[in-house]
Amino acid sequence: MKIVRRIGVSPRERGSATAETCPDIFELSDGSFAVIGTDATDKLDGALPPDAARAAYERIVVISRQTLIEAKADIPDA
């Protein structure tokens, strides 16, 4: 599995001047997506709706609204 491309603009283009806050989205060679964000598993795990679940190896990651909005045009429709 390899990173094929960034989805959206770079953190620097969104105003991040340091490496302290760099949420990002990448498309992978198998068609999946990888997300860099803040781990909020401990905070949000108990708030998941009844029809949602996560495996022990999965984490709940938060990205900024701006990160996703900037990526919208690059997200494939299918």
Overview of this structure, please?
- This protein is of the alpha+beta class and 78 residues long.
- 14% of the residues lie in helices and 22% in strands.
- It is built from two helices and five strands.
- Strands 1-2-3 form a three-stranded antiparallel beta sheet, with helices on one face.
- The radius of gyration is 14 Å and the shape is globular.
- It starts with a strand and ends in a 7-residue tail after the last helix.
- The model has no long low-confidence stretch (mean pLDDT 90).
- Structural classification: alpha+beta
Provide the β-strand percentage band: 15-25%
Strand segment tally = 5
| Radius of gyration computed on alpha carbons | 14 Å
Order of helices and strands: EEEEHEH
Outline the low-pLDDT stretches. none
What helical percentage do the residues reach? 10-25%
Average pLDDT, all residues:
90
Tell me about the largest β-sheet.
3 strands, antiparallel
Counting DSSP H or I runs of 4 or more residues, the number of helices is 2
Distance between the termini: 20 Å
Shape: globular
Strand order of the largest sheet: 1-2-3
List keywords for this structure.
5 strands, 22% strand, two-stranded antiparallel ribbon, alpha+beta, 78 residues
